[in-house]
Design brief:
- The protein is mostly helical.
- 69% of the residues lie in helices and 5% in strands.
- Helix 28 runs antiparallel to helix 29.
- The longest helix is centred in the first third of the chain and has 24 residues.
- The protein is flat.
- The two termini are 49 Å apart.
């Protein structure tokens, strides 16, 4: 798609109707200015006035649509400032395109005139421009690269000056990105060494800024990726730049261990991409080794990275020693077990898995899954039951959630059902109840599985537990979501069509009363009228369109109760007239009540 092919309709499709309208208002109010069009890149740059100052917008045409950015704080995409800039462009596109053509014509004319100048005069002009314009001087130095150190020093000075003080009103990350882009463009035809050093110079400056202030800035982060690519393209596999590659890897690892930029994963991925030989990996190993010592989640993670690095360098012995060191978490044991699985030693792996289940802390899903698979192959469901009980004991019955979805539980359930093992199935149901893993499905399953005598006992126990917990600390997952124990009790009574107990359960819970209005309002109309009228009064007193919309919805229910259930249309007419009359000045409320 080309920018000049954009229409109001396509911009609205890109931005959405709400953002489009806000952007249109900004455009019509003249809040877009300094719009520049780059025909070669088919992109625009503009400044848009906003609530907290001016925002910088960039937008470029891509094959499948538009790629845009804005440095405003809005979390959505795109924002109204982008929409406003695009609208200004399409309304004046002929003017912008004409201006570009005019500039190109002027450049062409200037080129012809320069060709006619004597060599000495042209040289004098070039020297004057180089003294006057730092960017021009930089481009000349890069072009000839006669003194590499002088070129890099000049570029370094420009890179260092891109960011003003973060407290400055002129601080703008999008402006910084534009300046960095110009700098990188100046070396795109330079030697690999020059491109690598300048791309790293830019990435280094941005990473330092992000880490120094703990920033998260999309435009800077995206540009760092471009700089990383430039470094990798220039260095990967280039033996003549081995020293530079190792130095950059070392500096990247310094930022990785600093870890305040929010880009640690991207940094490490770049390091992995740059590493070409054993000496490169050794730089990374030397940085990670001190971090992998001791206890804690971070050391465990670094230890895993180290083990992978030793494997890449063919040092299996050190890899194994690293994995065996400071076993603390379940994942530590699992990584060690995986090593022996890869070596084909299942006995050694099984020994480590069992040890990890007993001693490891934190996540143990992989350990339990491996041991479950082992016992299933042996058809040893006694051990599987023991494994489940051990897992429940470790987690604590009162806090073990989702037991029904546990793979060990599911394995036992499938096995008992296939063998028609009544006692086994009954034990699993009891286990779920004891683990507070109760929901309506458990109630239904017990009803289908258990014999009448056992079913009655199970139901009484389940309902007693829910009643005792109701109103106190919510200890159940609650099939009814945020309603907890009351919600689950209500679901069960509704399933049983026990309307009296259903009403007694929900009568003091407004949300549940609303949920079961269809079932209960015909039986308890006076209670519903009293509750809804009180709620409508509260919402009106709170003011605001959203509250009025909600109040109108409850008023609709009041109307249904009066007219359909109680057959008292005159009472409804009296109520709605009173509601409107008492709030004549609330125009938004009157609008929402219209039609009732």
């Amino acid at each position: 798609m080309k920018l000049k092919a954009l229409t109001k309709k396509s911009i609205e499709g890109f931005a959405g109707s709400v953002i489009y309208q806000r952007g249109y208002d900004y455009f019509k109010s003249g809040m877009v200015y300094d719009l520049e069009y780059n025909q070669d890149e088919d992109s625009i740059y503009a400044q848009v006035s906003g609530n907290s100052g001016n925002y910088e917008v960039e937008a470029a045409a891509e094959k499948d649509g538009i790629n845009a950015s804005c440095d405003c704080p809005y979390d959505g995409y795109p924002c109204k400032h982008v929409a406003a800039a695009l609208l200004k462009f399409i309304h004046n596109s002929d003017e912008y395109i004409s201006e570009v053509k005019k500039q190109k014509k002027e450049v062409s004319s200037l080129k012809d005139r320069l060709k006619e100048l004597p060599k000495d005069e042209l040289l004098k002009m070039i020297i004057t421009c180089a003294d006057k314009y730092p960017d021009f001087k930089r481009d000349l130095m890069v072009r000839f690269e006669s003194d590499k150190e002088a070129v890099l020093k000049a570029i370094r000075k420009q890179v260092d000056n891109v960011f003003p003080s973060i407290e400055s009103r002129s601080y703008s990350t999008s402006t910084a990105v534009r300046q960095f882009r110009v700098i990188l463009k100046s070396v795109q035809d330079a030697s690999d060494a020059m491109k690598a050093e300048v791309n790293w110079m830019v990435a280094d400056r941005i990473l330092n800024e992000l880490n120094e202030y703990g920033m998260s800035d999309e435009s800077l982060e995206n540009f760092v990726f471009d700089a990383f690519d430039g470094v990798a393209d220039s260095l990967t596999g280039n033996k003549s730049l081995k020293g530079l590659r190792e130095e950059i890897i070392k500096e990247l690892m310094d930022y990785y261990t600093w870890g305040n930029s929010g880009m640690t994963d991207a940094i490490y991925e770049t390091v992995e991409e740059l590493c070409s030989d054993k000496s490169d990996y050794q730089v990374v190993i030397d940085k990670l080794e001190p971090l992998s010592r001791g206890k804690g989640h971070h050391t465990s993670y670094y230890k895993d990275l180290l083990a992978d690095l030793y494997e890449m360098t063919g040092d299996e012995e050190t890899k194994l020693k690293t994995l065996e060191r400071d076993l603390e978490y379940g994942m530590d044991y699992w990584r060690l077990a995986e090593h022996w699985i890869d070596k084909g030693d299942s006995s050694k792996a099984l020994e480590i898995v069992k040890d990890g289940i007993k001693k490891g802390e934190g996540r143990k899903d992989e350990l339990y899954a491996y041991l479950l698979q082992h016992y299933e192959k042996q058809n040893d469901y006694g051990q599987i039951l023991h494994l489940l009980k051990m897992k429940i004991e470790e987690n604590g019955q009162a806090y073990f959630r989702g037991l029904n979805n546990d793979k060990i539980y599911q394995s036992l359930k499938k096995h008992y059902k296939s063998r028609n093992d009544y006692e086994g199935q009954a034990d699993l149901l009891e286990m779920r109840l004891n683990c507070k893993d109760a929901d309506l499905d458990l109630y239904k399953e017990a009803g289908k599985t258990l014999k009448k005598e056992d079913r009655d006992v199970f139901e009484k126990k389940m309902l007693d537990q829910l009643r005792n917990a109701k109103g106190g600390k919510r200890s159940y997952r609650g099939w009814a979501g945020n309603y907890g124990d009351e919600g689950l009790l209500a679901e069960i009574y509704n399933y049983k069509k026990d309307m009296k107990n259903l009403y007694d359960t929900v009568k003091n819970n407004f949300e549940l009363l609303v949920k079961y209005e269809k079932q209960l309002a015909p039986l308890y109309p006076d209670s519903y009228l009293k509750t809804y009228r009180r709620k409508i009064k509260e919402l009106v007193e709170y003011r605001g369109r959203e509250n009025y919309i909600t109040a109108a919805a409850y008023a609709k229910s009041v109307k249904k109760i009066y007219r359909t259930i109680l057959k008292q249309p005159e009472e409804w007419d009296t109520y709605i007239s009173m509601l409107r009359g008492a709030n004549k000045t609330l125009r938004a409320l009157q609008e929402e009540l219209r039609g009732l």
